[in-house]
Design goal:
The structure holds two protein chains of two kinds. Chain A has strands spanning 4-7, 10-14, 19-25, 29-37, 43-50, 55-58, 61-66, 71-76, 85-93, 100-102, 106-111. By secondary structure, chain A is an all-beta fold. In chain A, the strands form two sheets. In chain A, strands 2, 4, 5, 9, 10 and 11 form a six-stranded mixed sheet that branches. Chain A has a five-stranded antiparallel sheet with strand order 1-3-8-7-6, with no helix packed on it. In chain A, a hairpin with a 2-residue loop joins strand 6 and strand 7. Chain A is globular and about 45 Å long. Chain B is built from no helices and eleven strands. In chain B, the strands form two sheets. In chain B, strands 2, 4, 5, 6, 9, 10 and 11 form a seven-stranded mixed sheet that branches. A four-stranded antiparallel sheet of chain B has the order 1-3-8-7, with no helix packed on it. In chain B, strand 9 (89-97) and strand 10 (103-105) form a beta hairpin. Chain B is globular and about 40 Å long. The chains are: A mainly beta, B mainly beta.
Chain lengths: 112, 114
């Protein structure tokens, strides 16, 4: 079963705007990872954030983690048409097997 | 990071046949996994491939249907057995690097069962 829920399921914005995607999860985690998947392609690893971290940056990407609310957000600044893709959050739980479990994903469309 | 290769990249198969997918990682890894992604859906974990022992399957997946091998640290195979059209999906190999919690994915194998 899916651990995370992502919001929104689909997002369409104009090029140059910022895009924010949210991820909520149910059980305490070891870390949370964000991925991008272009249509019909494999997954690209974007960022890993550990449970003791609150924010990480990578280029135009900013990820936050609020363990008290069991939620994370991915912000893409100054979006480009090439950012059009599906974005997934995935969590590794603290307890049990070290499995990476995926959310449902957000389909992001950047309009030129 | 790690480079993960899979083959075949895609295949079209007849109902009742089996297909074996190979996965090779270019780095030392601790764990390897197999996922399925049905059309328009997210990724679902099939099993954890254990080196030298039987894979650990998730609920809803069984060894008879999805036998998995991992003869060494960097290579694994997944077989989709006795296929039906419902098995049409993308199958992705994944690996976690030593000393790092980041998990990487192969390009996937797109399977169509007629």
């Amino acid at each position: 079963s899916q651990q995370g829920e992502e919001d929104p399921q689909a997002l369409s914005i104009q090029e140059g705007e910022n895009a924010t995607m949210n991820c909520s999860y149910k059980t305490s985690i070891n870390n949370l990872q964000w991925y991008r998947q272009n249509s019909g392609r494999g997954l690209v690893h974007l960022i890993l954030i550990r449970s003791n971290e609150r924010e990480k940056h990578s280029g135009r990407l900013r990820v936050t983690l609020d363990t008290s609310k069991k939620s994370s957000s991915l912000l893409i600044t100054a979006s480009r048409a090439a950012d059009t893709a599906s974005y997934f959050c995935a969590t590794v739980l603290i307890q049990g097997a070290q499995k990476l479990v995926f959310g449902q994903g957000t389909r992001l469309t950047i309009n030129p | 990071s790690a480079v993960i290769s899979q083959k075949p990249s895609r295949d079209i198969c007849q109902r009742g046949t089996s297909l074996t997918i190979q996965c090779q990682v270019d780095s030392q890894v601790t764990m390897m996994f197999w996922y399925r992604q049905q059309p328009g859906q997210s990724l679902t974990l099939i099993a954890t491939a254990n080196q030298g022992s039987e894979a650990t399957y998730e609920s809803g997946f069984v060894i008879d249907k999805f036998p998995i091998s991992r003869p060494n640290l960097t290579f694994s195979t997944l077989t989709v057995s006795n296929m039906s059209p419902e098995d049409s999906s993308i199958y992705l190999c994944s690996a976690r690097l030593q000393g790092n919690n980041e998990q990487f994915f192969g390009p996937g194998t797109r399977l169509t069962v007629l």
